[in-house]
Design a protein that fits this description.
A: about 450 residues, elongated, B: 7-stranded mixed beta sheet, 6 helices, about 20% strand
Chain lengths: ~450, ~200
């Protein structure tokens, strides 16, 4: 961590740690830390071993700090915050070496991400039997945002904090619903399904960018690092101080592991959905999710880079080369506003429209051929939309409107790291720093590099 | 279902922690910290039992956490030891059954709950007992709990069945009512008594 980033007032505790480390009296500690970090470059990455070594180092350093002249008479809290500082410092330095460090991890992340992108095109709360009183978009969005922050912080404590904040939002939703809606509290029976749903929504940046819920820089950083659920969980498990991954933190952590496991193993039987409907939805999502093969003629160059990681965002452009027969053809107007169009575009627009309609019609025929279930839309849309995605589009529009609202309200609370007036306050007090401040650090750091 | 009467008020969870001693610091022979996992079909009232228990304790020095699915509560026993229960609720629906090992791993106590008006939930309870015998930690303390004892008119699982099954499997058995609070404290006190104590030399 660059010392010049110490201007951030929000991570006082961490900078307190850095200050102490700059004190000449702590030279011995600094040497130990530096040589430990350097020692990592002598070996190839091995997550289990690395985790063990880091945990042992935390313990060794705890002993050293407790006996150290700089911490004479220090309270348990002060010792603890020094150790939190140590964890953050060491793991930020070792981040690229330890986070998602093996090809297997990268592969698992990608697989989970792809599955979530498929699911998110059609999954509804009813499929997980989530009671209507718990379908609270505002709460869910807060929970999603908390979880998404996990990808923007590096220290294990801060990642874990994001999970806890997310889970506490959901927990509060359940408690509040059981009080005001006169609904019997069902505990984990309700908690886990909501968490699963929130996790799926939070891991779908394809949807979020479309409606400008996140800004371009964040979007780019997500693309550089699509939500690495597996790697994040593994990182916390291995590198969070073990004495801290207990009790409530461990419970919520376990729930997210559990939600991830559920998604990995998810099939039609895992959901309240007809098997045939599930398979059709998955198949449709797969078709829509095909990588665009041709240049994207959108005004924004950024989208070129997005192509291969974009999921089937409901209003995403549909490039499925599995669907079209002519190839070398795409739908350049999906990002366009009416004002952008010129008379010269009409010819092309008409061509694309005809193409879409004919493909849609033939797709409908094949789907109907597979089965005669209710999922087949009756009339082709006249706007050249992929009709298979119509339902999710409508639904997500309403979500995204809420997102905008949510964003609006966030402006009123600058620097607020979580939902106002919730358990977060409690959490923040107990633990130094906040995801927000760490976030800033990381961003500063990456801006500098 | 009937636990709406035992919900915590909004602030009960946080207030009592103010002057509370941090009991999670160093567990020793006098102050145990115990992970307790709740298993059982959905709708048998697992969370109601726990809410009732957590709310029923009024020791102002104990630190309480009341979440919707994670709760912690410390009880003081007569031998002047304390036990802090960290209670992990699990989702009871069939589709989540495969995830249970993630939760009961490392648990010192498993409380397996069924509904005395539902033979199906009693079968499910037996399934959990067998699963824990196979995959749980060998010294786990297990309790079998027949909940909703207040609904005796609709009883379909005779008390004797519960007693016999528990005896056969070396478990503690009790029937409770989260609604009337019957036997709720007894359940947790009995569990606390049965916990293996670390030797005082350690």
């Amino acid at each position: 961590m660059d010392p010049s980033s110490s201007s951030s007032a929000q991570s006082v505790t961490f900078y307190d740690f850095l200050d102490r480390m700059r004190n000449p009296a702590s030279l011995d500690l600094v040497r130990s830390i530096k040589s430990f970090i350097v020692s990592f470059s002598f070996y190839t990455a091995n997550p289990e071993n690395d985790g063990k070594r880091v945990q042992e180092f935390y313990l060794t350093m705890e002993g050293a700090i407790r006996d150290h002249p700089l911490w004479v008479g220090a309270t348990e809290e002060e010792i603890d915050s020094a150790l939190e500082g140590l964890e953050k410092y060491v793991m930020t330095k070792l981040f690229s070496r330890t986070f998602s460090s093996t090809p297997e991890d990268v592969k698992i992340d990608q697989e989970i991400y792809e599955k979530i992108c498929l699911l998110q095109t059609f999954l509804r709360p009813e499929h997980l039997d989530i009671p209507v009183v718990l379908q609270n978009e505002a709460s869910w969005l807060l929970a999603e945002k908390e979880l998404q922050k996990m990808n923007t912080v590096k220290a294990p404590r801060e990642k874990l904090l994001c999970i806890m904040n997310c889970c506490r939002v959901i927990s509060n939703l359940l408690l509040n619903a059981s009080m005001s809606e006169n609904m019997v509290l069902a505990g984990a029976d309700d908690f886990l399904p909501v968490l699963i749903y929130v996790m799926i929504k939070a891991s779908s940046p394809c949807l979020n960018y479309q409606k400008k819920f996140i800004d371009l820089d964040t979007w780019k950083s997500i693309l550089a690092n699509p939500p690495q659920l597996h790697s994040n969980l593994k990182f916390i498990q291995l590198y969070r101080r073990q004495t801290k991954l207990v009790s409530e933190a461990a419970y919520y952590f376990t729930n997210l592991v559990s939600a991830k496991t559920f998604v990995v193993d998810l099939n039609a039987k895992s959901l309240s959905i007809e098997e045939i409907e599930f398979e059709e939805n998955m198949q449709a999502a797969r078709l829509a999710n095909k990588v665009p093969q041709v240049e994207v003629s959108s005004s924004s160059n950024d989208f070129k880079a997005l192509g291969d990681v974009r999921g089937p965002g409901p209003s995403g452009r549909i490039h499925g080369d599995g669907i079209h027969t002519s190839g070398g053809y795409n739908y350049p107007f999906m990002e366009a506003e009416a004002d952008d169009l010129t008379v010269g575009d009409v010819e092309r627009l008409l061509r694309v429209y005809k193409d879409v309609v004919s493909k849609y019609t033939s797709l409908c025929r094949s789907v109907r051929h597979i089965s005669l279930t209710k999922t087949v839309p009756s009339i082709p849309g006249s706007e050249g939309k992929n009709v298979l995605l119509t339902c999710p589009t409508e639904k997500s529009t309403s979500i995204d409107e809420k997102r905008e609202d949510d964003r609006g309200s966030e402006k009123g609370l600058p620097g607020s790291p979580g939902p106002p007036g919730t358990a977060n306050d409690d959490l923040e007090k107990g633990l130094p720093g906040s995801p927000r401040s760490a976030n800033d650090d990381v961003q500063k750091e990456s801006a500098r590099s | 279902m009937g636990c709406s009467g035992s919900l915590p008020d909004r602030n009960s969870g946080r207030l009592s922690g103010i002057n509370g001693s941090e009991s999670s610091g160093a567990p020793d022979a006098k102050n145990l910290r115990v992970k307790l996992v709740l298993l059982g079909d959905s709708g048998v009232g697992k969370s109601c039992i726990v809410l009732r228990f957590v709310r029923g304790q009024f020791d102002p020095t104990s630190k309480v956490t009341v979440g919707a699915s994670f709760l912690s509560q410390t009880i003081a026993l007569q031998d002047s030891t304390t036990v802090k229960f960290e209670i992990w609720d699990t989702a009871g629906q069939e589709r989540y059954a495969a995830l249970a090992p993630l939760y009961y791993r490392g648990a010192a106590v498993a409380v397996i709950v069924y509904d005395i008006t539902s033979p199906e939930s009693f079968n499910k309870a037996q399934y959990w007992v067998k699963e824990l015998q196979k995959h749980g930690s060998p010294d786990i303390v297990m309790a079998l709990v027949g909940n909703k004892a207040d609904l005796h008119e609709n009883r379909e699982v005779p008390t004797q069945d519960g007693i016999e099954y528990a005896e056969k499997n070396g478990m503690f058995f009790i029937e409770t009512s989260a609604k009337t609070a019957d036997n709720i404290n007894q359940l947790f006190e009995e569990i606390a008594k049965r916990l293996p104590r670390p030797s005082s030399t350690s």
